[in-house]
Specification:
By secondary structure, the chain is mainly α. It has nine helices and two strands; from the N terminus they run H-H-H-H-H-H-E-H-H-E-H. Strands 1-2 form a two-stranded antiparallel ribbon.
Length: about 230
């Protein structure tokens, strides 16, 4: 398991020790930091430091507001400015490539289960069945990733801006509806266009890829981590 993954799990467990009020403040700060230009390592290290600081204050009977004031966005901005993150284009490309690869494997699994597995179970096809990856599938994956990234960034960037805005829920609902409409577009167009196959391969290779992917995810998830005090 990577250091970042271990730190994320550790921070998740530590956050469960916070009171409901402190956890709400922490969640807003963490969301804001995670859509900043800080590297993944910097994000989780800083979040861990903030968590331990909150827990110390909590144990001493102090409130977060009394220690930081009520401008949590300024607090987070000061931290980001102090670190002065500089994320290179290469790192950005690498990050989104990993996301695309991970999501593509996930969608490949779903497509196999609903489209090809029933045919294999019925015995109407053998393992020489051909798997077709279409343009619609590629565009759909890209749309979903872009939409999810925009949604996460929006939520993170506005986690403080609308805390006292009574129209925030309505605005967020409208934004989410827009994202959903954006994600549905590929399927609407696919109904009117003939499928364009990008590549074809034997279903055996697809099964091998799916097995390797989920074995890797399982090993990554179940590997134990130690929480230091």
């Amino acid at each position: 398991m990577s250091n970042v993954a271990s730190e994320i799990k550790e921070n998740l467990k530590l956050s469960k020790l916070l009171t409901e009020e402190n956890d709400g403040i922490f969640t807003n700060i963490a969301c804001y930091l995670r859509v900043s230009n800080l590297s993944d390592e910097e994000q989780e290290e800083i979040i861990n430091d903030i968590l331990r600081m909150f827990l110390d204050w909590q144990e001493e009977g102090k409130t977060v507001e009394s220690m930081l004031g009520d401008d949590y966005k300024k607090f987070a901005d000061n931290i980001i400015a102090a670190v002065n993150p500089k994320k290179t284009i290469f790192k950005r490309i690498k990050k989104y490539f990993v996301i695309l690869l991970d999501f593509s494997c996930f969608m490949l699994t779903i497509d196999f289960i609903f489209e090809y597995l029933p045919k294999l179970l019925k015995g109407t096809h053998d393992l020489n069945l051909i798997y077709n990856y279409t343009l619609v599938m590629l565009v759909s994956n890209l749309f979903i990733i872009i939409g999810a990234s925009v949604l996460v960034t929006y939520i993170g960037k506005t986690s403080f801006s609308f805390l006292n805005n009574r129209f925030y829920k309505l605005e967020k609902f409208a934004f989410v509806c827009g994202i959903v409409a954006f994600l549905v577009l590929p399927y609407v167009f696919s109904l009117k266009l003939s499928p364009i196959v990008i590549f074809s391969t034997n279903i055996r290779y697809v099964i091998i890829i799916i097995v390797i992917y989920w074995v890797y995810k399982g090993v990554k998830k179940t590997r134990p981590i130690a929480i230091t005090s």
